[in-house]
Amino acid sequence: MKEGKTRESKILWSGALVVGLLTFSGYAQQAATPPSSGPKPAAVEMKPATPAPAPAAAASTEGDTPNKVVLKVGDHSVTVGDLDYFISSLPQQGQQAAKQAGRQALGENYAAGMALEQQALRDHLDQEPDFQRQLELTRMQELAKAEVQKLYGTITVTPDDISKYYAGHAQDFVNIEVRRIVVRTKPGTTNPPAAGADADAAKARLEAIRKELAAGKDPTEISKEFKDAGEGFIDVKTQTVRMAQFGPEWRDTVAKMKEGEVSDAHAAPDGFVALQLVKRSTQDQKDATSEIDRDLKQQRLQAAVDDLKKKAGIWMDSNYFAPPAPAPPPSAAQPAPQAAPQAPKQ
Predict the structure, then answer these.
(1) Is 299:286 a contact under the CB 8 Å cutoff?
(2) How many domains does the chain contain in total?
(3) What is the extent of the structural domain holding 82?
C-alpha cells in the first residue's frame, strides 16, 4: 500500500484509532452528531481488542523491513513502514496508547478502519459536500504545518546573535523572588455581608503587615492573622518571576526595590496588594542560550510568515471582520463584579 493511501486513510479515521486504547469511539461521536447533509452514519460497535502478544512474540518482529507486507484488506496491502508512519504521526498520548494495546490490537483496528473506508467509498460518501470541505480543510492545515516546519528548519541563530540579544535584553533575564500580601475590601452591597474591610481599614492593615515583615516577623505567623481567603492572604512560599513578566504598574516599583523591602500598597479591583522582594538574581548567558535561540527562531519564523502574508495578496471584508462592539457599562443598579487582586503577570 502506497504512503499516499496510508495518509488518506489517516485523514479519514486516525482521530478515532487511539481514543480509549484503540476503540472507535471517534466514529460513535460522529454518529451522535451527523453532518448537515448526506446520509447519517451508524455508530460502530467494536469488540474488545485481542490481548497484546507476549513480549517474546513482539520481540521476534523487530527485524522486519519497512517494505514487508503484514496486513491485507481486500486488494490493499499494508506494510511495516505504513504502520510505523501511522503511529509516528499520532500525538504522544496516541503513540503511548498504541504501544500499550499491542500490535494485534493495532492491526485489528487498522483493518476495521480500512474496511469502513472502502465501504464509505462504495457508498460515495467521499463525494458529500461536508466531507469534501473537511478534506480540504485538513489538507490546508497539514500543508501549512509542513511549510512552517520547513521555514523553521532554514532559520539559523549564531552565537553572535545570542550575545547581542542577551546584551540588549538584560532586564529580561533578571529573576525576582517575591512574596505577595493581599488584603481584600468588601464589595459595595452583598447579602449576607461579605468578608473584607472597607478601603481605609484594608490599607491600614496592609501597612501594619508591611511593618511586621520589615521587623522580621515570620510570614507563616502573619498568615494566621487571616481568618480565610475572603479577608486576604500572604504567600508563605515565595514565587520567582522574570522582571519582564511584571506588568507596567509593577515593573518600575520592583526595579527600585532592595532585597527584603516591601512595596507600598497598590490598589486592586477588590483590595490592596503589596510585594516583598525576597531575592534578585540574573541568569547568565550560558544558561539562557537555549531560551534565546528559541525566542529568536520564533521571531524570525513569525517575520517569515508575515512576509508570506504580504506577498499572498490578502483581502478581508472590513465589515465582516470588524472588532466586536464594546460591552455597555454596567447600570447603577447592578454594580460591576469584583475581580481578585492582580498578582505579577506570570
Answers:
(1) no
(2) 2
(3) 3-52+64-127
Strands 174-184 and 69-73: unpaired
Question: Which of 100, 127, 154 is the endpoint of a domain?
Answer: 127
Q: What stretch of H or E contains 176? A: strand 174-184
Q: Which amino acid is at 120?
A: A
Mean pLDDT for each consecutive 10-residue tract of the chain (346 residues)? 45 40 36 40 38 40 83 94 93 91 92 95 96 96 96 96 94 91 76 64 89 90 87 92 86 89 88 92 93 96 96 94 83 46 45
Residues 118 and 204 in one domain: no
Backbone angles phi, psi at 277, to 5 degrees: -85, 110
What are the backbone dihedrals phi and psi of residue 209, each rounded to the nearest 5 degrees, phi first?
-65, -35
Query: Which pLDDT score is estimated for 64?
Result: 83
For residue 66, the number of C-alpha atoms closer than 13 Å in the C-beta half-sphere is 7
The grid cell for 74 is: 481486500
- CB 7, CB 100: distance < 8 Å: no
Tell me, what's the pLDDT at 247? 85
Residue 255 belongs to domain with CATH number: 3.10.50.40
Buried b (16+ CB within 10 A) or exposed e, 127-139: ebeebeeeeeeee
**pLDDT at residue 119 in the model:** 96
166 in a structural domain: no
Q: What is the pLDDT of residue 331?
A: 57
The runs of H, that is alpha helices, within the chain are 3-17, 25-32, 55-59, 80-88, 92-101, 103-122, 129-154, 159-168, 199-214, 219-223, 248-256, 285-311
**Does residue 339 belong to any structural domain of this protein?**
no
pLDDT of residue 194: 53
Distance CA 44, CA 42 (A): 6
Enclosing H/E stretch for 244: none
- The predicted pLDDT at position 41 comes to 35
What string of DSSP letters covers 50-98? Answer: PPPPPHHHHHTTTT--TT-EEEEETTEEEEHHHHHHHHHTS-HHHHHHH
| CA-to-CA dists, residue 106 to 14, 47, 127, 253, 257, angstroms | 12, 13, 28, 59, 60
Helix (H, G, I), strand (E, B) or coil at 40: coil
Q: Residue 124 corresponds to which amino acid?
A: H
